[in-house]
Design brief:
This protein is an alpha/beta fold. It folds into three domains: 216 residues, Alpha-lytic protease prodomain-like, CATH 1.20.1510.10; 78 residues, Alpha-Beta Plaits, CATH 3.30.70; 84 residues, Alpha-Beta Plaits (2-Layer Sandwich). A three-stranded mixed sheet has the order 1-2-3, with helices on one face. The longest helix is centred in the N-terminal third of the chain and has 30 residues. The protein is elongated and about 95 Å long. The two termini are 39 Å apart.
C-alpha cells in the first residue's frame, strides 16, 4: 500500500530528501488536524488526559517539522569542515524530538497527579468520542508509513517518528479507557489515564534518546556489516584472516578500517592489489572511506599451523576470545624463535593470570624461547 502511495505522489524511493519531505509534510498535515480535534474536545470536556494527548499530538507536529529540516541539512554532502558529511544530524534530531517528549511528559504527569488528588467528572458527546476514536486509525497509518519509509531509506529519525506516532495512538486508547471509567462513576479515571499517557511518553522518549545517543557515542557495528566485510575480504586469494574491523557510521557515509593477514612471502605489489580490490568492493556498498591494513605472517614456519590450531580451536573451545587470535608471527629461525600474537579481549586485569598460564603452556608445548601476547580491544569482530 505504501509503495503504491509513493508512486501516486511521484516520489523517487532512492531520493532520501524527497522521501523525508514526503513523510514530514504528510505527518504535519494529519497531526495538525488531530491536535485541533483533541484540543477542542479536551477544553470542552475539561479532560486533563485528552489535553495531554492533544499536546502529545502537537509534539508530533513539531517533531515532523524537525524531520523536514533534518533531511534538508543531513543530506548535504561532505565539505572542508565535515569530510564525512552531515548524516549524524539525523541522530541529533531524534534526541531533540525525544527531549521535547520528555518535557511534555513531565508537565502532564504533574497535571494528572493533581487531577487524581482532586478528581473531576468529565463529559464528551458521541460525535467527539467518535472523532477521537478515529484519530487512532490516522495515527497508526502515520506510524506504519514512517516506519516503512524509515526502513526503506535506513533513516533513524523516520523510524523514531513512526514510534512517536504509535505512542500517540496508544495514549489515545488510554484516554478513551479513562472516558469509559469516568462515565462509570470513577471520577479519578481521567487523572490515572493522564498519568499513564505521561509514563508512555517517557518510555518512548527514553528509547529514542538511547538509540540515537548510542550512534553518536560510537556503538559496536551491526553484526551484518561485520559479516559482510569479512566475507568480502576472505574470498580473495592469499587472505588468511580478517580482524580489527572498525566501522564509523556517519549516516550515509562510512569510515571503515580493517586488517587483513597475508603470507609474508607475497610481494608488495600483489599485497597492494589485494588491499585495493577489497577496499573498492566494500566501498561499493558502504560509501565513504575504506582502509585495508596488511599484516604479513610467516606461514612457512614449521610451527605456524600447529600454533594456530592450538589457539583458535583447542583454547578457543574453552575460552572463546582465543578464537580471535591473529597476527601470529614467529621471530627468529626454525629452532630458536619467539611467538607473537594478538587477541581481542576487554582490557581487564582478571585475564592476566590466564594469559600467563597460556604463555607458559605455549613455550613448553612448542619449544618457543618466549611468547608475547598483545591485547586488542574488541571493536567489531
Amino acid at each position: 500500500m505504501f509503495s503504491y502511495l509513493i508512486k501516486i505522489a511521484r516520489i523517487d524511493p532512492t531520493d532520501r530528501k524527497a522521501v523525508g519531505y514526503f513523510e514530514g509534510w504528510v505527518s504535519v498535515a494529519v497531526n495538525v488536524l488531530i491536535t485541533v480535534i483533541k484540543l477542542v474536545y479536551g477544553i470542552i470536556s475539561g479532560s486533563v488526559s485528552l489535553l495531554a494527548d492533544a499536546i502529545h499530538s502537537l509534539s508530533d507536529v513539531i517533531s515532523s517539522v524537525i524531520v523536514i529540516f533534518t533531511f534538508k541539512f543531513s543530506t548535504k554532502g561532505a565539505d572542508a569542515e565535515h569530510p564525512f558529511g552531515h548524516g549524524r544530524i539525523e541522530n541529533i534530531a531524534s534526541i531533540i524530538i525525544a527531549t521535547l517528549l520528555m518535557v511534555v511528559g513531565v508537565e502532564f504527569l504533574i497535571n494528572s497527579i493533581e487531577r487524581i488528588i482532586s478528581p473531576k467528572a468529565i463529559e464528551i458527546d458521541k460525535i467527539g468520542f467518535t472523532l477521537i476514536t478515529i484519530t487512532i486509525l490516522f495515527k497508526e497509518f502515520l506510524a506504519r508509513l514512517a516506519i516503512y519509509l524509515g526502513k526503506l531509506i535506513d533513516s533513524s529519525p523516520l523510524i523514531a517518528e513512526g514510534h512517536h506516532h504509535r505512542s500517540d495512538a496508544l495514549s489515545t486508547v488510554i484516554v478513551i479507557i479513562g472516558f469509559v471509567g469516568n462515565n462509570l462513576g470513577f471520577a479519578y479515571a481521567d487523572g490515572i489515564a493522564g498519568a499513564l499517557v505521561s509514563l508512555f511518553i517517557f518510555h518512548t522518549a527514553w528509547d529514542l534518546i538511547k538509540d540515537s545517543s548510542q550512534v553518536l557515542i560510537g556503538r559496536k557495528p551491526d553484526p551484518e556489516i561485520i559479516k559482510f566485510i569479512k566475507d568480502i575480504a576472505s574470498k580473495y586469494e592469499n587472505v588468511l584472516g580478517v580482524h580489527d574491523i572498525v566501522v564509523h557510521d556517519f549516516g550515509q557515509i562510512y569510515n571503515i578500517a580493517l586488517h587483513v593477514e597475508i603470507p609474508d612471502n607475497i610481494d608488495i605489489v600483489t599485497a597492494h592489489e589485494i588491499s585495493d580490490k577489497i577496499e573498492k568492493e566494500i566501498g561499493k556498498k558502504y560509501k565513504g572511506h575504506v582502509i585495508v591494513h596488511i599484516d604479513p605472517v610467516n606461514t612457512s614456519h614449521p610451527m605456524y599451523h600447529k600454533v594456530v590450531d592450538y589457539l583458535r580451536k583447542e583454547l578457543g573451545s574453552k575460552y572463546p576470545f582465543f578464537e580471535t587470535a591473529h597476527d601470529i608471527r614467529f621471530v627468529g629461525d626454525d629452532k630458536f624463535f619467539n611467538i607473537v600474537f594478538d587477541i581481542n579481549i576487554p582490557q581487564d586485569k582478571s585475564y592476566s593470570t590466564l594469559l600467563n598460564e597460556v604463555r607458559n603452556e605455549i613455550k613448553k608445548r612448542f619449544g618457543a624461547n618466549d611468547v608475547s601476547i598483545n591485547i586488542d580491544l574488541p571493536f567489531g569482530d
